[in-house]
Amino acid sequence: GDKETAEKKFKDISEAYEVLSDKQKRQIYDQFGEEGLKGGVPPGGGGAGGFPGGGFPGGGGTTFTFTSGGPGGGFGGFHPSNPEDIFEQLFGGGLGGLSSMGGGRGHGAQFMDVDGGMGGMGGFGFGGGNGTSVRSRRPQEITRPLACTLEELYNGCTKKLKVTRRIRDATGNINPSEKVLQVNVKPGWKAGTKIRFNKEGDDIGHGAQDIVFVIEEKPHPLFKRNGDDLKVNMTLTLDEALCGFKKPLQLLSGKSIFVSNSNSVVEPGQTSRMLNYGMPNSKNPGQKGTLIITYDVKFPTTLSLSQKEKIHEALSE
């Protein structure tokens, strides 16, 4: 069954590591091939005799055979120079990952995130030894959006986020663990700004993941951001556009200012620019962008005859 196949695979891999990590045994293999490991080393070959019993010492007679490729997943021209290569070849289309198995041959070799088949199981390791990693792959980071209002990005704020992560314990069970992460949003941060928390994500056997929060800007009902500049529309009546106005405008800081004009006629689409009233610069918060005000002039939909006469009289002078 699958269990027997997996157990045999582990046994074979373990013995391969034993042979290939032993300088003397590896020298025999490099010089005489697999026949040398079976006990067929010519007399005096490499200063070492063969292994009796047709196999590896303590290996129960199991022997690795490396053949050219073809259907069935052979190892075409396999000549490993170090123990890592054999596992790279073995797992190239094989194990997809299996939870850690204790009671192995005691080599302490750990292998994580091996791609491929055998039912798509997770990373795995052999018990015993000191758990030294032979080959591992950095786990993929977790990316999550962090939505902020324009006021929060203008003034800065602190956001506390409760994260539930999965952690594999010593018995192999995966348990949830909650933690609160704090993000200090700085004034002037833009959409796309990334905040990384190293090793605060899932840790299910192949290293803890990083969590990366990416700032997203919520739409604002009044202001629009363009870099460090802010844009806002202000609607004027025809009377205000022609005769002048003084109108309050509440800023993102919460303070209000008055925008006024009494010296000229304001045309539809005309703009005013107020320096240092825009968004803070994240690298230099004391420096702000420009507030750009665009005026919309609201024309009356109907006029009485009397109003028309008065306007005509005023504009004809």
H/E element order: HHHEEEEHEEEEEEHEEEEH
> What is the number of helices?
6
Count of extended strands: 14
Radius of gyration: 37 Å
Walkthrough of the structure:
This protein has 317 residues and is α/β, with parallel strands linked by helices. It folds into three domains: 2-135, no CATH class; 142-217, Urease metallochaperone UreE, N-terminal domain (HSP40/DNAj peptide-binding domain, Sandwich); 223-298, Urease metallochaperone UreE, N-terminal domain (HSP40/DNAj peptide-binding domain, Sandwich), CATH 2.60.260. 21% of the residues lie in helices and 32% in strands. It has helices spanning 2-20, 23-38, 83-91, 150-155, 238-243, 305-316, and strands at residues 110-111, 124-125, 133-135, 142-148, 157-168, 174-185, 194-197, 211-217, 223-226, 229-237, 245-250, 256-261, 271-281, 284-298. The strands form five sheets. The chain has a four-stranded mixed sheet with strand order 9-10-14-13. β11 and β12 form a beta hairpin. α1 runs antiparallel to α3. The longest helix has 19 residues, at 2-20. It is rod-shaped. The N and C termini lie far apart (103 Å).
